[in-house]
Amino acid sequence: MIKRFIRRVFGLSATAPLLVPRERHGLRREALSHGALKVCDVLRDAGHAAYVVGGAVRDLLLEIVPKDYDIATDARPEQVKPLFRRALIIGRRFRLVHVMLGQETVEVSTFRAADANTAERSEHGRVLRDNVFGTQEEDARRRDFTINALYFDPATEQIIDNHGGLADLKRRVLRMIGDPATRFREDPVRMLRAVRLAAKLGLSIEAGTRAPMRKLAPLIEHVPPARVFDEMLKLLMSGHASACVRQLREEGLSKGVLPLLDVILEQPLGERFVTLALAQTDERVRTERPVSPAFLFAALLWHEVLAASKARQAKGERPLPALEAAMDRVLDTQCEKLALTRKLTATMREVWAMQPRFEHRGGQRPYRLLEAPRFRMGYDFLEIRAASGEVNPELEAWWRAFQHADAETRKAMLLPDSGPRKKRRRRRKRNEVAEPGPEQA
Ligand code: ATP
Ligand code: MG
User: Fold this and answer.
1) What's the whole-number mean pLDDT along residues 150-155?
2) Which of 25, 46, 152, 351 has the fewest CB within 10 Å, making it most exposed?
3) What is each CA distance from 36 to 31, 78, 86, 420, in whole angstroms?
4) So which residues are the catalytic ones?
5) Which atom of ligand 1 is found nearest the CA of 234?
6) How high is the pLDDT of residue 17?
């Protein structure tokens, strides 16, 4: 009782010991990357505190190889930089140091405090600025989840656990530090992080943390689109995209992020298509094959493009102009929320615009399509369309055979050219499609 009171007075967590020796958590300094270890040792030799913190400690304790290492220290950026040969101070809002060691980049940030009283906020309670340096304990308190606030000291192999993160990790629970609703209001992206981390690490979101999410989901709409895009990309490329998207829907979060996704997933064909595309992406990530973000977003939005295009055709518009207009509409709507980059949308358009071209299997057209710069991506897309039942599987089988066949076989495979006669080509003004097919003339 008294002990608890004292801990409370000093702002310490009531649930966990503060300093946990190696015997009780099992993490050794040798488990760290060369760069992380070096940075901590150098900082310590210069008289500073230095801890590995955040995702790296969490992942190592779960026996997952960390993506990257974050170091937290009491040294200021301008004290950190001169200690290393290759180091850069970056960031305007909060300055941190990137230390480059060989291939590795280690991020070093100075302890900071999220002072609830001085932080600048938006009308919805979102924290716009919180750039005061602080103590280790304050630094722990401003982090999002208990399992992300474990500080490993390589010199002593002790972990500072201010918020009971070790116990939560053991129970596989994702718990917000502090009052969940307040913390989600400060930064609604934490809701997306919760879903991503839970899906990636197989954790359950603690009931109190989960409770306010549905109600606060609309706040994501006020987050700058570029940040939502970054987080969505992380989520989709996590190797657990299927699970993440399912959970986003369960928590009522998908509307703010991919406003069209719910509509798409309610149509049986759309659901099958998106499910297949996500499953394929997860498989590629897990087997370390490259994944294209453009392909993913093109897949997520395809049925929306199809629906818009069909609606236009029903009003008498010709198929290709209808498709073009549908692509514009969908991308305009989506870019407001997600800040898709121009490079990304250009590729998405190429993949979409290529789809009708697969229907022409006579004359020179299939040969020209094979030469298109994004043919492979376009074909992979066709494969999912066929597997989801949107197009005849025979069409996909034909293209699969055609692309690998020798010249003679290809010639024999061609079907009678049934498309409209080729007319004089005219350049379209607003055409962003790299290689317009002759059918677009
Ligand atoms: P991963 O690297 O697997 O995506 P991570 O938890 O390391 O997961 P980062 O974005 O690298 O995620 O962030 C590093 C650490 O910074 C987190 O572990 C957490 O302590 C803190 N952090 C990141 N984003 C937030 C946020 N929105 N609010 C509070 N703390 C955050
Ligand atoms: Mg990280």
Assistant:
1) 98
2) 46
3) 10, 19, 14, 63
4) 68, 70, 144
5) 4
6) 59
Structure token digits, residue 6: 């004292």
1-171 CATH fold: Beta Polymerase; domain 2 (3.30.460)
Q: Are 415 and 362 in contact (CB under 8 A)?
A: yes
pLDDT tens, 66-83? 999 999 999 999 999 999
HSE value, Cβ hemisphere, 13 Å, CA-based, for 414: 15
CB 165 within 8 A of CB 172: no
Residues 278-413: name the CATH superfamily: cca-adding enzyme, domain 2 (1.10.3090.10)
Nearest CA to ligand 1 atom 21: 143
CATH 1.10.3090.10 location in the chain: 278-413
Residue spans in the chain of domains classed CATH 1.10.110.30? 177-257
Distance CA 331, CA 336 (A): 9
What CATH class has 177-257? mainly alpha
Neighbours of 188 (CB within 10 A): 25
Return the residue whose CA atom lies nearest to atom 15 of ligand 1: 54
Interval 390-439: pLDDT, tens:
999 999 999 999 999 999 999 999 988 765 555 555 555 554 444 444 44
Q: How far is the CA of 91 from the centre of ligand 1 (A)?
A: 16
Q: How far is the CA of 395 from the centre of ligand 2 (A)?
A: 43
**8 pLDDT above the threshold of 80:** no
Q: Which pLDDT value is given to residue 128?
A: 64
Residue of 33, 71, 143 to test ligand 1 pocket, by largest number of atoms within 8 Å of CB: 143
Sheet strands side by side (includes 96-101): 19-20, 158-161, 150-153, 50-53, 70-73, 104-110, 96-101, 87-90
Spacing, Cα 225 to ligand 1 middle (Å): 18
